[in-house]
Design goal:
This protein is an alpha/beta fold and 346 residues long. The protein contains 12 helices and 12 strands. The protein binds S-adenosyl-L-homocysteine and iron/sulfur cluster.
């Protein structure tokens, strides 16, 4: 839902302001799926609204649920025929998190990422970004799933800082008390390292969490895995992160996908410790290790055991580190597996 568009439509229809209040409460508070369900609105208003401005600009094509019920992946159709993926996760009993996409595809082309392999089709509009959250809130209401969806991570398809304006507008809607009302500290944006946007993000959204997809701490290796490193190398990234810490004093989360024999060796962990030492105080830097999820690439998968060994070296270097839970592997909904292939989309 684009709140401004709906408000304009109501004004066009010559309706008083309290009608927007009613729509807003039904859509964001009760997660209704259609104007028809807003019984406080006169039938003619519901019909006129539906005609003028659709409640959502995304439409469900299909949803897959993992065997344990803790990961749900949706394919959503967009108006221009593009398809985007989004995931709903339940990391603990009462908490739900959604992983949302910011682009159809991605131009960064990290070698291990399924989204990267498909190239960039286009960026999403702010409404297409936030509608993914709305979609899951409606889905939870319809399925009567207990608990609340109030964590959002921008870790789906696309590079959020390659479409900063759209992402920034979507964040404003998610944070808006009169819309999604999600707490800033419950939102994380992950970037592969668009250095110039990092400091800007710190100024615009100092309370929203920042995650950096690092994956290597030497330039040769990182350029090979994350081609973005050619434009913004590790020195540029460190400088941007120092500036970010200087203005926000917030913790930074680093994501590091472990690829067997490539970036998971003891010397890679030591290089990481050394690089982090140049970025900021140890207590503000946290490394999230991700066991590689198989994609159609030549990289070899790692296991939790590999991650534990790597983690031990980071801990010895004084850095906190966790091994990320891998929910949704059986439905290709885990990190880096988000790609819309025709065979899967049908
Ligand atoms: N483009 C942004 C946002 C996507 S986040 C970024 O890269 O930060 C998706 C996360 O999943 C990133 O940390 C990415 O590096 C990681 N990832 C990609 N492919 C993966 C794979 N095959 N296995 C595990 N993690 C992967
Ligand atoms: Fe793009 Fe992120 Fe995938 Fe890299 S890991 S190709 S930046 S979506």
């Amino acid at each position: 839902m684009d709140a401004a568009k709906v408000q304009a439509a109501l004004t066009d229809l010559g309706l008083p302001k309290f009608r927007w209040e009613q729509v807003r409460q039904a859509v964001f508070g009760q997660a209704v799926s259609s104007y028809d369900e807003i019984s406080v609105l006169p039938a003619a208003t519901r019909a006129a609204l539906a005609e003028k401005v659709p409640l959502m600009c995304v439409r469900e094509r299909r949803v897959d649920v993992s065997g344990d019920g803790r990961a749900h992946k949706a394919l959503l159709d967009l108006a221009d025929g593009s398809v985007v993926e989004t995931v709903l996760l339940r990391p603990s009993e009462t908490r739900w998190t959604t992983c949302i996409s910011s682009q159809v595809g991605c131009a960064v082309a990290c070698t291990f990422c399924a989204t990267g392999l498909m190239g960039l089709k286009r960026s999403l509009t702010p409404e297409e970004i936030t509608d993914q959250v709305l979609f899951w809130r409606q889905y939870m209401a319809k399925k009567k799933l207990p608990g609340r969806l109030d964590n959002v991570v921008y870790m789906g398809m696309g590079e959020p800082f390659a479409c900063y304006e759209q992402v920034s507008a979507s964040l404003k809607a998610l944070l808006d008390q009169k819309q999604f009302a999600i707490g800033a500290r419950h939102i994380s944006v992950s970037t592969s390292g668009v250095a110039p946007k990092i400091a800007l993000f710190g100024k615009d959204f100092p309370q929203v969490n920042l995650a950096i997809s690092l994956h290597a701490a030497t330039d040769d290796l990182r350029t090979r895995l994350v081609p973005m490193n050619k434009a913004f190398d590790l020195a540029a990234l460190a400088a941007a992160l120092k500036e970010y810490i200087g203005s926000t004093n917030r913790k930074i989360f680093f994501e590091y996908v472990l690829l067997k024999g490539e970036n998971d060796r003891p010397q890679d962990a030591d290089a990481l410790v050394k690089w982090l030492d140049g970025v900021g105080p140890k207590e503000l830097l946290h490394v999230n290790l991700i066991v590689f999820n198989q994609t159609d690439t030549q990289h070899k998968p790692t296991e939790e055991r590999d991650a534990r060994e790597f983690q031990a070296r980071l801990l010895a270097g004084g850095y906190k580190s966790t091994v990320r839970q891998n929910l949704g592997r059986d439905i290709d909904g885990a990190c880096g597996q988000l790609v819309v292939l025709e065979k899967k989309a049908k």
